[in-house]
Amino acid sequence: MANSLLSVSGLRAAAEEKEILRGVDLEIGEGETHVLMGPNGAGKSTLAGALMGDPRYTILGGEVSFKGENLLEKSVSQRAGAGLFLSFQNPVEVPGISLENFIRTAIEQGKGEKLRPWVFHKEVKETLAALSMDESYGERDLNVGFSGGEKKKAEILQMLLLKPSLAILDETDSGLDVDAVRTVSRGVEEFRKNEKASLLIITHNAAILSALKVDRVHVLVSGRIVKEGGPELIEEISRDGFSRFEVNEG
Amino acid sequence: MTDEKTQVQDVNRAFYDFRYEDRDSYRIDGLTKEIVQQISEEKNDPEWMREFRLKSLEIFNQTAMPDWGPSIEGLDMDHIATYVRPNAQRMNTRWEDVPDDIRNTFDRLGIPKAERASLAGVGAQYDSEVVYHNIREDVAKLGVVYTDIESALHGEYGDMIHEHFMKLVPPTDHKFAALHGAVWSGGSFVYVPRGVSVEIPLQSYFRLNAAGAGQFEHTLIIVEEGAYLHFIEGCSAPKYNVANLHAGCVELFVAKNATLRYSTIENWSKNMYNLNTKRARVEEGGKVEWISGSFGSHVSYLYPMSVLNGKGARSEFTGVTFAGKGQNLDTGCKVVHNAPDTSSYVNTRSISKDGGISTFRSAVVVNPKAENSKSAVSCQSLMVDDVSRSDTIPAMDVRTSQADIGHEARIGRISDEAVFYLMSRGVSEEEARALIVSGFAENVSKELPLEYAVEMNNLIRIEMKGAIG
Questions:
Q1: Taking CB atoms and an 8 Å limit, are B418 and A94 in contact across chains?
Q2: What is the ipTM of this complex?
């Protein structure tokens, strides 16, 4: 059993006073790849947002420990600094700062380390190359005028450069063309080269998972984890859907 | 060249608030006929200018204070020195000749560095006198004149100045234009001959330094047929606790098919009454481009105006205004379409924070002759918190049916989602908000040369500091 990285127990959270998460338990160890599946409205994005500290969600109860520390009492920036990353489905456009300068600022503030711009620039170039992304990405203003696919590629780039201990990819693969899916997959492979890095992938798409060694699959229905298992669960769900679990839910 | 300024993180308010304790060698308080005569003598004015000053004083005394904008009751004319001369010889063309303490202040503002970085010319005004003036030789060889307006008044361009001085902004325009006409002091004169394109910007940097000092500099720019010029005016004043007044005047003459870009970043101390008047007249096929960043000051009235007098003349105005605690900034622009096929484009952003009031006020007048003219006005306001205010007062006066006029206004707040996104990558809440506000002001910063854009972002960052908690 790997060292525990994230431990969620009995997490309850609400959005606009409606309870969405109704007691979630989840354990993720160092270096593991987990998949979270579930029907629309099950609370998958709420779980991801609640872990990152999205102000739209109110925590009603439960505990979350990350690297042995209470995650819920940290600010969003502190969670990022501690090594948590969440990819956004629709990241905001911020004119006036380039993607590269933004990531550098984020690393410097989040981790409190000073980077040399030219050393960092080299790393950005190498990472862009590894993702088969154009060199000009780094100079473009953060997400400004990016297509849906470009935004998601930029999220993957940020993940690789920020080097979080746990990256949560929330439907990063949905609505993408083949090229963008390839970039995302390649990014995930790159990310996994670090043996200690963990992933929580929220997806509907079994294709993105086929090339990956998945350690654990969690099925979220109506705000609770109703089933856990190995990678074989993915195939089962792509064949049968979630109806079986929803029936159980009553 | 700008290494100490491009590190955006390394900014502190002290960078802009420094001042040296001064030894004013000469100062006059209050405003009487005798004082105006004394100023005129001190300046060695030509006769016509002496008369002009006295006439302006009469108009000033007959004109009521404006009653339609932010309150200027705190302004006590009796206690504002109308003229302050620093301890320097009248003019210096060599940086080495500028006295040490004044030079130190300018060094901290980065002026000689900017010049070394191949900007075409530097004119710096310390209090009321131009203490440093220089223009690069290759620009001068093209016949371009860039000098302080007072010495130009006595030289070969004296008649030209006589012909243009306060013709666009007459002393009868409003009370502070009259005041300007009476006590104006210092400023720049630029003349770009026909067909000459000045490839690198000319810049001037004005500051106020003495307590209770008013500043009344005059800028006169003439760009002849087919010529091009970019002029940059930057202002930064140290903080002081006696009410200060700035009533400058800018007059721009843009001839047929000429283009003049006039960029300003103003950062006045928070006790300043900034009652500035700027106006451009544009002839056939000519174009004026205003880039304007308004920061600081206690109260501002600032509405650069374009008079489009020739067929096909154009005006573009791009502005950003930041009103923080205790500030009431009333800014915008005016355009008068006087000829067919003229066009104007206005794009402004205003930011208010900590109870600051930001008002966008514009007036577009399309006269009957101005057939087939176009005007588009767009203003966006961002309120950083719930206690700040933002108003939009756009006026349109269209007297021809043959015109295409559009206006849009948007008022918004910083979205929680955007702050959450940026914070989720590790930046602090303060940084996230500063990034968003800087991005909002990008319409202006992207039009500025790099070092000015960096400075403007620094100002935003300084203003945003302490916004949280």
A1: yes
A2: 0.94
